[in-house]
Amino acid sequence: MKRRFGRRAIAGLLLLLALAAAGLAGSAVAATQVDSQTAKTKLLGPLWLSLQWIGDGSFNAMGKAQVEDRDGTLHLSGRQDGKGDSAGDWLEIDGDILAIGLRTFHFKGWIETRVSYINDGNPCRREVEADFLMKTGKKYWRLQAIDNPCDVAADYVDLFPK
Asked: Residue 57 region, left (φ>0) first, then alpha (ψ -120 to 50), else beta?
């Protein structure tokens, strides 16, 4: 029994193959929903990035992060490297901001940490979809999903506007 494909099916298949060849199939990300232009302005550009286990809490010990607009989708990436007693430890973050509110933003991506005395010193990479919240009176956003999935620890991942 022979199967016949209509012109629409063949055209659709050719379009899908062309998108896959161009690396575009399935990669469309919706634009960031912005409910607060003030918060968006604070987020865009350079930020300080911090994990409480790395450094002494000063801005000199913090890492750097960047939020950039990629055709309407805000993308967050950054890294903190430990120095001194924290040498060899790190925090890295990469992903998209899906929505921004007055004191919160919703992030989807991955976070990787390495702290010498957590998870036997092994890196812990986690896929996350969670909120960062700037509590009243605070000047930074904190990741609300604080449980480290690789050990019994609470990780405070913070972002400070520069």
From this structure: left
CB atoms within 10 A of CB 142: 17
Tens of each residue's pLDDT in the chain, 162 residues: 444 545 544 444 444 444 444 444 445 568 999 999 999 999 998 999 999 999 998 999 999 999 999 999 999 999 999 999 999 999 999 999 999 999 999 999 999 999 999 999 999 999 999 999 999 999 999 999 999 999 999 999 999 999
Q: Is 86 helix (H, G, I), strand (E, B) or coil?
A: helix
Residue owning tokens 């899906």? 98
Q: CA-to-CA distance for 61 and 152, rounded, in angstroms?
A: 24
Residue 107 φ then ψ, to 5°: -115, 140
Residues near 126 by beta carbon (within 8 Å), at least 6 away in sequence:
110, 111, 112, 149, 150
Chain mean position to CA 161: 16
DSSP 27-54: ---PPPEES-HHHHHHHSEEEEEEETTS
CA atoms within 13 A on the CB side of 53: 20
